[in-house]
Every structure is written in structure tokens, then in C-alpha cells.
Design brief:
- This protein is mostly helical and 126 residues long.
- It has one domain.
- The protein contains five helices and no strands.
- α3 runs antiparallel to α4 and α4 runs antiparallel to α5.
- The protein is globular.
């Protein structure tokens, strides 16, 4: 198995795990990550759908893509991490503060994006 394929599969499993967690116990995870809970029933429903359902779907897409075309999977990982990091920075600027978990996620997103770039360059050079 190539490093690219393994990298995409690991990212897929992270998204699947995140999605399952928010699908099955959204209030607990939301509390752990943001120091708060969704304030209304609609906010909880949206948490199930967005953090749970969308993360599960994205993880499945990454798994599927890893099996067919690891290079495309690397591009998907790079795109997701770059967009998440950019949106997180905007959120931190707009909110004016964030907990340590948000900064940890930002650093992780930047590292994963950088690793995706390295693997993409390595794949196209080889």
C-alpha cells in the first residue's frame, strides 16, 4: 500500500470516527470540543446532520476514493483541510477568542494539508 493511499484512508477513518461520534453522542462531543452545548433542538438536529452526517459521508467518499485513486483522495484531503483551516481562522478572528481545542484543530489541519502537498509532489515526481 502506498503512503498516499494510507494517508487518505487514515483521514477517512478520522472523519468517519468524528461523524459517528456526533451522530451518536453530539451533546457530549460538542461540550468537550467547544465548552458548550447546542442551545436549541434545531441546533442539536443541525449538529447531528452537519457534524455527524456530513462527516460520515465525507469519510466514506475518502475511503471510496482511496481505493480508486489515491492522488484524487490527496487532493480532497488538501481541499478539506485548507478550507477548514481558513474558516477556522476567520471564525477565531470574528469571535475574538477560541479554546485550546480550536487552536489544536487549526494546527492539525495545517499539518495535514502540508503533508498532503508533500505526498502530492512526491507522487507527481515519481
Amino acid at each position: 500500500m502506498s503512503w498516499s493511499k494510507l494517508f487518505v484512508i487514515v483521514n477517512a477513518l478520522v472523519f468517519v470516527g468524528f461523524g459517528l461520534g456526533f451522530f451518536l453522542m453530539p451533546e457530549q462531543l460538542y461540550q468537550n470540543l467547544t465548552d458548550s452545548v447546542p442551545a436549541t433542538a434545531s441546533a442539536l438536529v443541525d449538529t447531528h446532520a452537519t457534524y455527524g452526517g456530513l462527516s460520515l459521508a465525507y469519510g466514506a467518499v475518502l475511503l471510496w476514493t482511496a481505493l480508486e485513486d489515491a492522488v484524487r483522495g490527496l487532493k480532497y484531503v488538501l481541499l478539506a483541510m485548507a478550507c477548514m483551516a481558513t474558516a477556522r481562522v476567520v471564525g477565531i478572528i470574528v469571535a475574538g477568542e477560541a479554546n485550546l481545542t480550536m487552536y489544536s484543530f487549526l494546527v492539525t489541519e495545517l499539518i495535514v494539508a502540508a503533508l498532503a502537498v508533500v505526498l502530492l509532489k512526491r507522487t507527481s515526481a515519481g
